Amino acid sequence: MLTERQQHCLHGIGITAWQIRSSISARTEVDEPVAEQFIQPSDIEIPSAEEKTKPVEKIQSQVFDLTGWPQMLEAIEACKMCELAKSCTRKVPGKGQQQADLMIIGEAPGHDEDLQGIPFVGRAGHLLDKVLNAINLDSNNVYITNILKCRPPNNRDPHADEVLACSQFLQAQIKLIQPKVILSVGRISAQNLLKDHSPLGRLRDKEHVLPGTNLPLLVTYHPAYLLRNPAEKAKVWHDMKALLRLLNNE
Ligand code: URA
Known about the structure:
Bound molecules: uracil
Strand order of the largest sheet: 1-3-2-4-6-5
CATH class: Alpha Beta
CATH architecture: 3-Layer(aba) Sandwich
Order of helices and strands: HHHHHEEHHEHEHHEEHH
Oligomer: single chain
């Protein structure tokens, strides 16, 4: 049964109680055999001919000391490894608790994040806050960051070499935080973290382990996707309950 507070929070993210009761138990049973229907065209990454022949961006290698938070923040600020460092307004390292149990990893800063230097502060971020509130998690008690620390122009998808160049920062953040669980939001985050190009619909609703570590990792839809497809909120609520069970060792 949902508490009054949870019902209130769910209402806030646009889910009504009757949807949850029927959708979670009935929908999962009915939907599993036809999981394909949840795969959105935008989830499928098919490189275009142009993408395949795109010249590899020049990555300027730099060596950083990433052994502590001050060094890591300094390094992100000083990084000029890819072109995004030139085009972005501000670097966006991350926000939240440095000893968090939960680490949330999105794709890359957007317009608002680029201006403020803080991840998930735009519309998608507000929805993410509401989703976290629905499971009684304050976004201040988690650590939130992105695969990329700089905004790609016009919010285009990150290029593989940009992801690679930036991955040392993410790896250092994970080592410093040592979270209990990682929540990957959105296709770009999930595919890059898991090194698996399956559509998001196939990556969610499973407990993964972050490659090269023993950290449990769950995948869910990106809040920006939810803003465009509010009907998917019930699935995110399902994912959040799984997340809570993992955080509570249940
Ligand atoms: N989308 C993301 O993936 N990250 C942000 O910080 C903002 C929007």
